[in-house]
Specification:
- This protein is mainly alpha-helical.
- It is 79% helix and 0% strand.
- It contains eight helices and no strands.
- It has helices spanning 2-26, 30-79, 82-92, 105-117, 122-129, 137-168, 174-178, 183-191.
- The longest helix has 50 residues, at 30-79.
- The radius of gyration is 19 Å and the shape is globular.
């Protein structure tokens, strides 16, 4: 029951993210984009089951790690250098450098529970259960943890450096001002060849 309830919420956040991507990239209305994203997911699961999920995970993981590591680099290059970026972020709000600003003890425990709970989630455990043999587990663990650390660091860097970029380019900040979830998509559209 716990897995059913909370995994449904987790999956819903993925569908919302896909809908935001379709909305931003293709100019599709959000309501239609939700249905397109859900239909695409259901289709590839029915077509190939776990093997299809494994292949799509591999393609998505490769795309994500490169995009999340390259985008902060391009933001920094677009703004000059890291010193300029940090000065701009500090000028916007010095509290941006305080990770624990406004967090109560309960909020910190909640964040730790969410982050550490990731390793026990069913969709993560299934990946390890599908290993060819127990000998491949240590290598899979190293690859999985390295990927997770790099992508999470990249995602945080995109959001953090996005503060500086859109402060320097307020004319391009319209979509991000309306919805902060669009920062990555807008940076990619602006900084890379469409």
């Amino acid at each position: 029951l716990v897995i059913l309830v909370f995994f449904t919420i987790y999956c819903a956040s993925g569908v919302v993210a896909g809908a935001r991507l379709f909305e931003s990239t293709f100019g599709m209305p959000y309501e239609y984009a939700l249905w397109v994203g859900a239909a695409a997911t259901i289709l590839y699961v029915f077509i190939g089951g776990f093997l299809a999920v494994s292949w799509t995970d591999t393609v998505q993981a490769t795309l994500m790690i490169f995009a999340l590591l390259i985008t902060p680099l391009f933001v920094t290059l677009a703004l000059g250098d890291m010193g300029t970026v940090m000065a701009t972020i500090e000028a916007q709000n010095p509290a941006n450098f305080d990770m624990f600003r406004g967090l109560s003890f309960v909020a910190i425990i909640s964040l730790l529970a969410w982050g550490l709970g990731y390793f026990g989630q069913p969709h993560i455990l299934v990946r390890f259960m599908a290993a060819d043999s127990i000998k491949t587990i240590p290598n899979a663990r190293r690859i999985g943890m390295t990927w997770m650390i790099l992508t999470l660091a990249g995602a945080v860097a995109v959001g953090f450096l996005g503060i500086a970029y859109f402060a320097d380019h307020p004319d391009q900040a319209g979509a991000v001002s309306q919805n902060g979830e669009r920062v990555f998509m807008e940076l990619v559209k602006i900084l890379f060849n469409p």
